[in-house]
Amino acid sequence: MHFMSATEHHHHSGHHSHHHGSGNSLLWALVLTIGFAVIEVIGGVISGSLALLGDAGHMLTDATALGLAAFAAWVAKQPPSARHSYGLVRAEVVAALANGLFMLAIVFMIAYHAVERLWQPQPVAGGTVMVIAAIGLIVNIIVAMILHRGEQTLNTRAAYLHVLGDLLGSVAALVSGVVIYFTGWTPIDPLLSLLICALILYSSMRLLREVLHVIMEGVPPYLDLAEVSTAMAEPEAVNSIHDLHIWTLSSGLVVLSAHVVIRDMGEWNETLTRLSEVLDQNFDIQHITLQPELTRAEGQSLVCDHACDNHH
Q: How far does Cα 132 stand from its chain's mean position?
């Protein structure tokens, strides 16, 4: 296959496969979450518990988050097109960003109502809260396990964060129910809600920082640009590496491009194979674009012309 420039492409043919496991786990999580959210709304109204109603509202927003994540996982599987040459794998990153921001809104809303409850305590039926919160905890543990066993993309991690928030919310509601049932001390309800808000806020900020790093096309945190450059310059035929760029398209799909200065264009095919192996085996990077350049005697590098176009 002939390219118009002196650019060599090595595409990893299976780069969409990592999304297939995430869609099914998200759908199962969605069904379980919606089912229990309805039960919690009814229980929250009957018992008058903010912790229970807050958890129910949280589970309904979770259902929305899981729905968005499942839709994004499906969109990400769509094949590349003339309009989107990489396909729509970034849909998962967009969904993770939306879910992270959504989570922040939930945290501030619950915190506001919790503070309000501290100033104006209201009666809570501790027994009802205990029973429903205990069931909720079991449901949330099952959903969290389903997501944890599925493919770990930014998208499923954002959805998992929502479910983890729910799980903590169920624990808070359960403890709140027990304390109110045995002591009648109602401030425990909003106080535990505030504690959960703080935990979720910390996790949400971490996830959002990662998502923004991907959107800003930052080098994946586990890779060192200088280390990759040094490894690429090791083959004997390679004089130097410049314009090296590494970024993440979507979870598990890392892309690299670089200019490779070599002594002899006749060695390019062999050098390309060697560099592909180095990047794959040492850094797990399969999606690469490398451009060969010749070094002239006077020290200037020259991009080779069409005569040196050889696709490996």
A: 31
Tell me, what DSSP letter sits at residue 89?
T
In single-letter form, the type of residue at position 115 comes to: V
Mention the CATH class of domain 17-215: mainly alpha
The answer to whether 255 touches 9, Cβ cutoff 8 Å, is no
CA-to-CA distance for 130 and 51, rounded, in angstroms?
A: 11
Is 89 in contact with 76 (CB distance < 8 Å)?
yes
pLDDT digits (tens, 9 = 90+) for 183-230: 888 888 888 888 888 888 888 898 899 899 999 999 999 999 999 999
d(CA 161, CA 99): 9
CA dihedral 293, 294, 296, 299 (to 10 degrees): 50
Close Cβ partners of 22 (under 8 Å, ≥ 6 residues apart): 69, 73, 92, 150, 151, 153, 155, 156
Kindly list the domain boundaries of the chain, sorted by start residue.
Answer: 17-215, 220-308
287-295 and 8-10 strand pairing: antiparallel
Distance of CA 206 to the CA centre of its chain: 11
Question: 294: helix, coil or strand?
Answer: strand
Q: Point out which residues pair with 293 in neighbouring strands.
A: 261, 303
Task: Name the pLDDT band for 240 (thresholds 50, 70, 90).
Answer: very high
Q: Measured between alpha carbons, how far is 126 from 189 in angstroms, rounded to an integer? A: 10
Name 88's Cβ contacts closer than 8 Å, sequence gap at least 6: 75, 76, 78
Fold of the domain built from segment(s) 220-308: Alpha-Beta Plaits (3.30.70)
- CA–CA distance, 54 with 25 (Å, rounded to integer): 25
